[in-house]
Amino acid sequence: MAGGCDGYWQETEVAGVPVRYCRCGTGSPVLILHHDIGCPDRAAFAEALSGSHDVLMPVHPGFGLGSERAEWMRSVRDLAVLYRGLLAKLGIGRASLVGLGFGGWVAAEMASMAPADVDRLVLVGAMGLQPREGFILDQALVGYIDYAEAFFKDPAAFDAVYGREPTNDQLEAWDICREMCFRIAWKPYMYSQTLAPLLGSVTAPALVVHGAEDEVVPADCAAQYAATLPNSRLETVADCGHAVALERPEALARLVLDFIGE
After folding, report:
1. Fewest 10 Å CB contacts: which of 12, 21, 45, 208?
2. All structural domains of the chain
């Protein structure tokens, strides 16, 4: 794994699992949780936040090459508990949580566990709630590259992150990510049947963001998050697909910094 943000990579053990993370910047802590297609090499969004915040970006255990799988993990809530343990181990109390897609689901679970420990909550194209209209794109029905390409409105944006012809290592990493998704988020697929009722206790300010051209997560999921979180607002990023942080990092960084403070 190459450097994902302009900082330094470290590793610590949580719940018997090595957790690799990049940490950069100074200021109030911000935890960024990545998509289910892995932690990207390019992280302009994280770097933008690190100018005024202590940014922590872990690699989900079991998602990608060199990331050890937690054999005991059976649910996304288990992953959220692990990250609560990571923050505790690093001596971080209140933090802002920024979740991208699948990582948004993890962030929402974390917030529901310990509402008082959330400074700000940002959910970008978050999975985790069952759409009332449409479906979350089922990666079992498409190829590895097709699934990742669906995250982007502009094919050139995909090429800029992964290349026109992704490497064999990248294909293997996507295969590993897919296997882990099936392990912890398969039945039901990419949503929780218990999360929605728990979100009412999350009174921290919340920003819900949705890419206007998202073909992975229906816009109804964002609408549900905005309606369920007591202190939230919904923003739509134009001319963008599911991977807002990768396709329009500057626009997302501006939204987030305006929300959490510079």
Report:
1. 12
2. 9-260 (3.40.50.1820)
